[in-house]
Amino acid sequence: MNNSCYFSHDSNAKNDENILEMRADYGWEGYGIYWALIESLRESTDFKLNHGKTKGLAFCHNLPLKLLSTFIKDCIEKYNLFASDGDFYWSESLNRRMEKVDEISLKRSESGSKGAAKRWQKDSKAIAKNSNAMAKNSKVKESKVNKKKSINTLLKKPSGFFGPTPENISQIKNVWNEFARENQLPNISKTTPARVSAIKQRLREKEFDFEEILKKIRGSPFLLGKKNGWKVDFDFVFCSKNNYLKILEGNYDGEFSPTPVAEEWAEFLDQHAEEKC
Q1: What is the spatial order of strands in the sheet that 83-84 belongs to?
Q2: Mean pLDDT, residues 110-120
């Protein structure tokens, strides 16, 4: 089964009280339109659809524009099947289901990574036991080179950036924690649903170059905590749509340091505290 197209669907959804209200007005045609919209939401970025693009959606589903516009409005205001912020609309039920799908996929991926790590560790011990000192040193160096190569190979896919899959999300966590360990930065213990959502959003942005961001951080005394004691963390990079661009553009390079004025430094800390996932 292709997970890129998957979402769970209750077998008795037709009897949901809100859907029954909708069916009473629109019949089975409305039921079909509802699930067509759910499928479109599933395929869209962040599982949201733009109110301003209903005309194209009507053409896609071969429906009269007036009928589809009224149906969407009723699903929001009358049947409580969709939510809206005025610009976009979405299904809370679909979002909850997709969070569960992502959590399950991520757990499976992390479980597989841990199993592979244990097997690798076991094999490494067996090799080390039967090797002399020169061979052992050689293998340690080779392991480090291969590890770096594997990370760089993943970071430099033909597309230029990660695809938002559970495997790549897990890899990003591992790469960040290794980088954090080497540079005395905060690591992350959990990829929460909020962090998974933030990672996916960043990875859809072509400007997001994770390898270059890590290089920039490594060269910034401020981001490494050598100026005011504040250190960059995972959420600072991923949970804001602007911070990583500032890093790439060199805003924190060299001798950068926020003004030592207490009020303004406190404002800087408050601002970035709000950007936690």
Answers
A1: 49-50, 88-90, 83-84
A2: 64
Domain extents for the chain? Answer: 3-95, 99-273
Q: What are the distances in angstroms from CA 26 to CA 19, 32, 72, 112, 147?
A: 10, 10, 12, 47, 58
User: How far is the C-alpha of 108 from the C-alpha of 226, rounded, in Å?
Assistant: 38
Q: Are 87 and 51 in contact (CB under 8 A)?
A: yes
- pTM value? 0.43
**Summary mean pLDDT of the chain:** 78
Tokens of 53: 């693009």
Between helices 193-203 and 166-182, what is the axis angle to 10°? 100
Element counts in the chain: helices (H) and strands (E) = 11, 3
Nearest in space to 169 (alpha carbons), one of 115, 237, 106, 212 = 106
State the DSSP string of 158-202.
TTSS----HHHHHHHHHHHHHHHHHTT----S---HHHHHHHHHH
The kind and range of the H/E element at 266 are: helix 262-273
54 within 8 A of 69, measured Cβ to Cβ: yes
What is 36-89 written as a DSSP string?
HHHHHHHHSGGG-EEGGGHHHHHHHTT--HHHHHHHHHHHHHTS---EE-SSEE
> What average pLDDT does this structure show over 18-30?
94
CA atoms of 145 and 137, how far apart (whole Å): 13
Give the pLDDT confidence of 127-159 residue by residue, as tens digits: 556 555 555 555 545 555 454 444 445 444 434
Nearest CA-CA partner of 101 in 173, 54, 47:
47
Q: Which tokens sit at 158?
A: 């033909």
The span from the CA of 44 to the CA of 220, in Å, is: 37
Question: Is 207 exposed, middle or buried (CB count within 10 Å of its CB: 0-12, 13-18, 19+)?
Answer: exposed
